[in-house]
Fold:
Amino acid sequence: MTTTAPAPVPMPWRLARVEDGWLETRTARTVVLDVPGWPGHDAGQHVDLRLTAADGYTATRTYSVASAPEAGRLVLTVQLVGGGEVSPWVVEEARAGDELEVRGPIGGWFRWSAEMLQPVLLVSGGSGIVPLMAMLRERSRTGTTTPFHLVHSARTPDHVFYTNELHALAVSSPGLRVDRLYTRGGLPDDARTPGRLRPEDLPAVDAFDAPPLVYCCGPSGFVETATRILLDKGHDSGAVRTERFGPSS
Structure:
């Protein structure tokens, strides 16, 4: 006699309502969503977001969650994509009270929780900082002092998401280091000249008391470059967790 495994139950779509929103940069916006029945998530996970037009047409895109785990509530930060179907609505049109649908949480590998005691190296390019911000916020929420080092690359200081919060966390959180580097134009007193990610921008494995978990997120080219540098600097490939997006993500 043979038995078959039950078919997986599809994730339900949940109604979400916009509670609040604000610009992070001129082309990126954070929205706070009230999601009744949302079970919570792990820092680093993502969700599907679906919009439905009056004529029934739907558009779905995937976005990382920016908030620390919390039941019934999600925070997303969305970068405007030219010609997109979802990001222009989120960045330019969404207002408090507007409704949409979300499905998730999604993702089993690119996750962090306070029970993971290894040091952590976070490497992000552009909007790739979003899931890493969820990890930083969860670290702060739980009060852990696990060593964290964030290396974030952006075009200019005006392109950095969460800039004030990152500064506050770096000042107030023991064991947290935040490095920002710029590819197009930096600040007048920057010692580093603007440019793409370089080997000297990322710490070697022996810069930590124990081999760290590494989370790297950003455009595909950035992630490929960062991963190559990390492996050259002694980080184990099994400890480097990556998430990447292309031009239409």
